[in-house]
Structures are given as C-alpha cells and as structure tokens.
Amino acid sequence: ELAVQGEYLDKVGAVLREQGLTFVTHNHTPEILNGARETRSNLRLTRPENMGLCVDTHWVLRGGESPIGLLREWGSRVKALHLRNSTSGVWSESFGPGDIDHKEIAAWIRQTGYAGPLIVELAYEAATPRTRPLRENLRLGREYIREVFGC
C-alpha cells in the first residue's frame, strides 16, 4: 500500500508542478507512528520537486518523534510549518512555551534559511484550560512569536 501511495503522490505532485503549484502533504499522528514510517516512505518514493511537507510539529510530538529531529532530517523537503504547543501533553490555551522547544525550531529556521510559512494553530481539546478571552490568547501568542521567531 505504501508503494502505491508513494507512486500516486509523486504523480499528483508532477501534475501540480506542471501547473506551477507546489504539492505538500500535512501530517497527523498516524503518519508519524512507528518511526514516522509512512512519511519516510512517502519521501523515499517521491521526487523532491514533486512533493514537500507541511510538518505539524505537535502531531509529530504526539506520534512519538522529535519535531526538531525530523525537521533536521527532512530539511529542504519542509515547505510549511504548523505550530502549536501543549503543556504535559494537553494543548495550550495560547501559543507559547510548553512541551515543544520553539527556540530550537527558530534556530533551525535561521540555520537552514527556511522561508516557508509559519502557521500557528490554536486549538482546544477537552482538557485545555480556558482562563482568558480568545483575543488575549492571540495577543500572547503574537508576543511569543516575536520573542522566539523575531517576526
């Protein structure tokens, strides 16, 4: 199944590239489980010009892998980053310090020259504390982005 998937992802990417588009896949936990087996297979079976990655760092963490480790491994195949954080495994109320070290990710960005988008995903699950209005959470997240990423 992974061989067929890789073959078709490469074909989709080639068609989109011919139309001037960039094809990226986004991960959730299942693609990262078992040593990121599915994502690594997709990368092995597709050409870099046909498929890149939108790495969701928190789903990587929930899949049992190191976000910074996979960013370093996947390097130039990373075309977009989805950023979120948690505290003790529970999604945070605002984007800020927590289980993922975003300072390491910011350093990786500077070292590699990554110029793709940083997409902050603020999402709540049942156990997420809700102590502030959304506007305040967004403001705090913006301050954290300035502090850590310098933008």
Commentary on this structure:
This protein is α/β, with parallel strands linked by helices and 151 residues long. It has one domain: Alpha-Beta Barrel (TIM Barrel), CATH 3.20.20.150. It is built from six helices and six strands, in the order H-E-H-E-H-H-E-E-E-H-E-H. It has helices at 2-18, 29-45, 57-62, 67-74, 102-112, 134-149, and strands at 24-26, 52-56, 78-83, 86-87, 90-91, 118-120. Strands 1-2-3-6 form a four-stranded parallel sheet. Strand 4 (86-87) and strand 5 (90-91) form a beta hairpin. The longest helix is centred in the first third of the chain and has 17 residues, at 2-18. The radius of gyration is 16 Å and the shape is globular. The chain starts with a helix and ends with a helix. The mean pLDDT is 98.
The beta-strand count equals 6
CA(first)-CA(last) distance:
41 Å
Strand composition percent = 5-15%
Q: Based on the structure given, which CATH architecture is correct? A: Alpha-Beta Barrel
Low-confidence stretches: none
CATH superfamily: Divalent-metal-dependent TIM barrel enzymes
CATH class: Alpha Beta
The CATH topology, please?
A: TIM Barrel
Give the number of domains: 1
Q: Which value, in Å, is the CA radius of gyration?
A: 16 Å
Strand order of the largest sheet: 1-2-3-6
The biggest sheet amounts to: 4 strands, parallel
